[in-house]
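Our preliminary data section would be incomplete without showing what the modeling component actually yields. Below, a chain of 529 amino acids is followed by its predicted structure, encoded as tokens that our downstream tools consume directly.
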Amino acid sequence: MENIKIKRALISVSDKTGLKPLALALKNYGVEIISSGGTGLVLKEWGIDFTPIEQVTGNPEAFAGRMKTLSFPIASALLFRRENSADQKQAAELGIEAIDLVICNLYPFAEVAKKHQRKKDQSMVELIENIDIGGPTMIRAAAKNYRAVAVCIHPDQYPQLLESLDASTGSTDLATRRNLALCAFRETAQYDAIIADVLEQQWSADSKTFALAAKNAKELRYGENPHQKAWVYTDPLQPGLAGMTPLQGRPLSYNNLLDADAAFKCTNDLIDTFKRDTDFAVTIVKHLNPCGAAVSQNAFAALKLAWAGDPISSFGSIICFSGIVTEECAAWLADKFVEVLIAPAFSAEALLLCEKKKNLRLIECDFATVAGNYNLRSISGGWLVQTEDQGLDETTSAVTETPFSNAKMPLVEFGTMVNKHLKSNAIALVKETRVGHALVGAGMGNPNRLISTQQALEKAKENGEEDFSELILISDAFFPFADNIELAHRAGITHIVQPGGSIKDRDVIKKCNELGMSMIFTGRRHFRH
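Predicted structure:
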């Protein structure tokens, strides 16, 4: 069963790209070609004789093409075991003649779904009609019987198949058939997952199917550390950042992609919060944490504000802009080491300047492509799935005797958006400057919230902050004790934002009242582990 001569081939494809050279080669090898209606018309134009599929099935195409290839004769011709004497005997009794090659690609369901997404079209008719039934059946049958049958599912595979054919006999070898079978099962697995994914969205299902197919996996240089292997899987419907190719520089690494995603999502949250056309947001990320973030009225001002939030940590960082990167921004970054710049676009002048830094990666990614309302993480033996932590807190409530000025609420919104992208326990110190809002100090990733508070205060001092009464301290979760309040007060903090919800809330509020501090509860926690 190593080498199988192709005597009969079934061709039924929706995409005719690259088919002609393969079909002509099969003709030259004397292969009988069976074909469905649409493919048959093209073969006829190329002068290639074929057997209409209805002559094999014994039935005409029906129901506007919904029934073509599904049949006992076709499935049997693919599935019976050539090496099994009982199967051979039964096939002969039933008049079943073997099919040795299937060339079939599926209805373009994913492409139709993406078109509907772009147009926000909720019509189901076209989607449903592009769910292929006969194609996956033939492909899976051929792949299951790979020891005797070859299956091609994509035009990219045609040259590979042609090259592997024995020049004198037109035979396929087992290694080729096995490789093609694996590709086939991967294709049908993803195809069904995409259909489920789209229908889940259309019908508001309670859970989600993920289409993590090997065909959409790109191997990375290494993982989080050099001894680890890594891949990036691209969502076939919404490729987003994972599907972007840098305009220049080396390919992105595993860590680059994680940091780029963190910067991209934080910036997207900021522009969703500040929806005015005059606002520009910039986020600087290092090791998955924003070390700088700002909103201002132009990209350059936002960049400088964000960089000032932690100039040391910004070394080797990833920066995401909500708007076009200008020549002024690129010139200012010329003497600074940055790994990646992400933006919807770069000006021609900025591109010329960035070309001088060969290792700098540039990624153009429109925020309209933001995808992934789910967060997926692996654990031993399975996966944890949750919806993304998106959007502003719906309500805030003043809980102290000293009022919290309404004029500070835009800064509260800015700080809350940035703070929820810091690793827990997270404390953010934010400030309104002459040109915009900025993160001026942050503490994150500590089991002890008191230490996070101390780190945020020390970082703000390191950044030159002197009057802490102008800063707002924001916590991603409640304060379990009043000691955080006392520490903040000693530094000069007068305004605090936290979700509340602790059994010690009364003690914390009482301490704020004693110290004349103002505090509001948002009612929503933002843990990020």
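The chain has three domains: 6-202, 217-288+295-369, 392-521. The domain at 6-202 is CATH 3.40.50.1380 (Rossmann fold). Preliminary results of this kind motivate Aim 1 of the renewal.
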